[in-house]
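Notes to self after the Tuesday call (sharing in case useful).
The group wants a holo model before anyone commits to mutagenesis around the pocket. I volunteered. Ligand is NAP. Logging inputs and output together so the record is complete.
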Amino acid sequence: MSTVVVTGGTGTLGREVVRHLVEDGHDVVVTSRSATPSVWDSARTVQVDYRSPGTLRTAFEGADAIVHCATRVSGRRGGDVDLTGRVLDAARHTGCGNLVYISIVGVDRIPLRYYRTKIEAERLIEDSGLPWTILRTTQFHQLVIRLLNALTRPPLALVPDLSVQPIAAAEVGARLAELATARPAGRVPDMGGPEILAVPDLARRYLEAIGRHRLVRPIRLFGSVYKGFRAGHHLAPANASGTITFQEYLNARMRSPR
Ligand SMILES: NC(=O)c1ccc[n+]([C@@H]2O[C@H](COP(=O)([O-])OP(=O)(O)OC[C@H]3O[C@@H](n4cnc5c(N)ncnc54)[C@H](OP(=O)(O)O)[C@@H]3O)[C@@H](O)[C@H]2O)c1
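Result:
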């Protein structure tokens, strides 16, 4: 049995990591900014203030591994850089056998601001002196549905003419749990969902599932970010190891919405 700390263990991915670790019988600590986070009963929780090294060190004490899922999408320094720096400072202080980080396929090739912070965070980890593992995956089904929901609100749904390879956060969570309890592996093979699908097609499927009637119009966008997505730098066709399809996820979600 290992002791594993999951930062952001309250999030879409983090709670899946926690679930798999708990089910496998590990001692799991969830760090959260909230005093009363909602997580699995068998996981311990520690409230942390990422600006205060003391609270992070308390949470990391005795950890065999840390799975770093907490993310700051915006902020003055942006994204994950500052947050990851603080996690690394605390982990160096307490010692940690494996710092596992989740990143995104294409962060080094698509100049999205959030992606730039992810690649910078990856480099901080690689240079940290700590044993580390980094997994990059494609977009989660949950994120795709959130985006489709927003895009298909207007009567005419203008949807980017792009493809995505969505993956179930549950499968990524299982993989991270496995990596956290194994030896540090450095950068491991990317992980993508089972299918590459056109976003306008996904929008139509989503609209049908929720019974919303909209006209979907694919649109081309401009700029280097869109060009990177058009080139497919966010896809991992050779690593389509996820098995749960978007349609399966959507059907299950319609049966029991969360
Ligand atoms: N979503 C995707 O499609 C996708 C794909 C590939 C990789 N990833 C990566 O997977 C990781 C988790 O993503 P997710 O979608 O599960 O995120 P999420 O649901 O938004 O959860 C992120 C967690 O981070 C913590 N957090 C949020 N804002 C914070 C802040 N300002 N300071 C400190 N902690 C903060 C929150 O925990 P508390 O509120 O409890 O503190 C939250 O539970 C991220 O690193 C993301 O880049 C995501």
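Two things stood out.
The chain has a mean pLDDT of 95.
The longest helix spans residues 81-94.
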